[in-house]
Here is the input.
Amino acid sequence: MTINEAVTVADAVRIRLERSLLAGDYSAGAHIKDSHVAEKLGVARPTARVAVQGLIADGFLERETGRSARVRRFTGQDVADIFRVRRLIEFEAVRSVCEGADTEPIRASLAMFRDVSDDQDWETAAQADMAFHAAVVAAADSPRLSRLFQTISTEIRLLMALLHPRYIQVSPLHDEHTKLLNALTAGNPDDALRLWAAHMDDAEAFLSTRVPEKPARED
Here is the structure.
């Protein structure tokens, strides 16, 4: 096997693990051992190690010295802080979009919900949700605002996995984002921000019930 082929296999393993994480297949704090990944996916252990290291670098997993990697964990304080930053970024983006930005890319991102195969396909639904909010930020045409959003995107995506029980069916999530888009295109920033705040508040309130308030003791 060439070096390029080995990298390709490791990337494929990393992508598969990332999808499993975003689908909520692993609980927060769950150990992800190189040996387990290698056995489960039928790859060499060094390949599995490269994939796991990639996910650590991307912020999906965390590893302390002498311990195996584990799924990133959040506390109630983390959730509150992430949403505080999201509001700063997205509220500013909403104001800019309401001033007359091109909303066609946002419409296109909303169409991604059509790719959701069923109510169990949470990974695709979460990707569509993330794409919608990223498109709104991008429409503000502020490179710095987009970079700020990118810095918390991994954390947002991991929290989306915890949000699944809030939406037993995917259609209400699609409907919420349709209302958000309609508010943007109407061009009234007060109405749009009111809907955005309610959307954020609901997600934060639910997520705060799914995580501990403070860091758990190490096992």
Q: What stands out?
A: The chain is about 65% helix and 5% strand. Residues 80 and 219 are 25 Å apart (CA to CA). The longest strand covers residues 69-71.
